[in-house]
Amino acid sequence: MTEKVTVIRDAAWIVAWDAETDAHVYMNDGDVAFSSAGVMQVGGHYVGAVNEEISGTNLMVMPGLVNIHCHSGDEPLAKGLFEDAGTPALWGNALYEFSALLDADEDAQAAAQTVMLGDLMHSGVTTMLDIAGDHPRWISTMAESGLRGYLAPGFRQAQWRVVESHRLDFDWDDAAGNDRFRQALALVDEISAHESGRLQGVVAPSQIETCRPELMAEAADEARRRGAPITIHAAQTMTEHEELLRRHGRTAIQHLDAIGILGPDLILGHCIFADHHSWTRQRTRNDIARLAETGTAVAHCPVTFARSGMTLETIGAYQRAGVTIGIGTDSYPFNMLEEIRQALICARIAGRNFAEIDTQGVFNAATIGGAKALGRDDIGKLKVGAKADLVLIDIATPGMQPVHDPLRNLLHCAADRAVRDVFVDGSAVVRNHAVANLDYEGAVRELQDAQKRMIARSSAGGSAFGKGARLSLAVK
C-alpha cells in the first residue's frame, strides 16, 4: 500500500535537526515532506508524488513537543477550586489535603482525559505520558486521539491522610497495593500490545513515600524485563523529603539509589527537593551528579508547583550537570507552551541570573530531553527518518509579529494561540486550531457538569470542600 505523502511547500521557517552539531537549527523557505512512515525530506525542494500540499507561507514547521509527566484522572476538574489553597504546616502545598477531595466518576474521568488531550494537542504536544488510575475508556480514548501515548497505571500501598491540617500520616494496606501492582502490570502489557502501535505501557509506583522499597525494586525489575519505562514521583515536596529522612535518613535520590533502581529507563516526577535545594537541611550537592551518572531522567513541571510558591533549582543547573531533563504539565492548564515559558522564568528567578537558561535550552528539554527520557531518538526532532510528528505555527498571528526569532516569539509571547495544525505519524490531530478526532467541546460541557456533581457529593458528605479557595470580588 502506498503511503499518503504530505508536503509543506516553501515553509517560511523550519526548526530542523542538524546531525553535525546535534542541535535544532533554523532553515528558511524550504519543503517538509512526510508520510505515516516518517519524515522524508527537510528543506530544499521536494520532487516526487504528493497527495496533499500545504502552503508554507507564514508558517513555521517545528518538531512535536514531548510531555513526559501529566495526569488526566481528576486533575482537570480542579480548575477554580484550589489555586489559592494550601496547607501552611506542610510547606504550603495543596496536594495532600485538597487533592483527596476530588472523586471523579467514570463519565467525569473520560471527559477530563479528553479535555486534557485536546489542550495538550492545542499546545503542540505529539507525545505524552499520562499517569492515572485507569477507567474503561482510558486506552480507547488515548488511541482515538491520534497522539503518541505512554500510559502509566499508578499503584501504591499507602494512602495519604492529613491530620488536623498540620501532619501527614500514611494508611498502609500492603496487600491491596500488591494486588493493584499486579493489575497494573497486566494493563501495561495490554497497552503495549495495542494495535495502533502508538501506545506504550509504563510501570508507575505512584510515590516514593507510598510504596515499600521492596515493591519499587520489584516494579523496576518487571519494567526492565518488559523493556518498559518506569516513572515515580520523587523529591516532589518538602513533606516527602522530611518523611524519607525520618524513615531512612536519605533523600529521595539516595533512597532510590540504595534500592538500586536509578537508571536511564527511570523518569522521576518533579525531583525538586534534592540535597542542593535551598529549602532542605542537607549541606551536600551530590544528588544531581548521581542522576547524571546513572542516566536517570527528571520530569520538570513548573506551573503547578509555582502556584504553591516552590520551584526546581534549576532546570539550567540540571542540564549543565548532564541530567536528562524534560518538561511535563502535571495538572491543568495542560498548556505545554506556557509550561515551557514558566520553566524558563522560574529558572531565571531561582538562579538569579537571566543567563540561567536560554530559549533553546528550554526548548531542548521539551523536545529532545523528553525523547531521551523515553529512550527515543525518532521523536522531538525534524530529521529524515524521524516519526512524522510535527507542528505548524502561524507566524502571522499577532503574538508572533514582528518575526526575528520565531521560537522566542512562540515561547515568550504567542504560545498556543499560534498553533494551527498538529500531525502525529503523518496524520492531522489538530486542523486549523480544531481537535480532529475527539469531541473536545462535548467533553468541556461534561466537565462542567462533572465538577458540579463532584462538589455536591463532597459537600453532602460533610467535607470542608474548597476551604480557603473561594474568590471574593468586591463589586463597584
Amino- and carboxy-terminal Cα gap: 67 Å
Percentage of residues in DSSP E strands: 15-25%
Mean pLDDT: 94
Shape: globular
Number of helices: 14
User: How many beta-strand elements?
Assistant: 20
Extract low-pLDDT stretches.
Answer: 466-476
Helices and strands: which structural class?
A: alpha/beta
Gyration radius, rounded: 22 Å
Oligomer: single chain
Q: Describe the biggest sheet?
A: 9 strands, mixed
Helix coverage percent: 25-40%
Describe the structure.
The protein is of the alpha/beta class and 476 residues long. It has 14 helices and 20 strands. The model is unreliable at 466-476 (pLDDT under 50).
Gist of the model:
The protein is α/β, with parallel strands linked by helices and 476 residues long.
Q: In terms of topology, how is this protein built?
A:
Blueprint: E1 6-18, E2 23-35, E3 38-42, E4 52-55, E5 59-63, E6 65-70, H1 95-98, H2 106-122, E7 125-132, H3 138-145, E8 148-155, E9 158-163, E10 167-172, H4 174-192, E11 199-201, E12 204-205, H5 213-226, E13 230-234, H6 238-248, H7 252-259, E14 266-270, H8 287-294, E15 297-300, H9 302-306, H10 315-320, E16 324-327, H11 336-351, H12 359-373, E17 390-394, H13 406-414, E18 419-424, E19 427-431, E20 434-435, H14 440-460
Parallel strand pairs: 1-4, 1-5, 6-7, 7-8, 8-11, 8-12, 13-14, 14-15, 15-16
Antiparallel strand pairs: 1-2, 2-3, 5-17, 9-10, 17-18, 18-19, 19-20
Helix pairs in contact: 2-3, 2-14, 4-5, 11-12
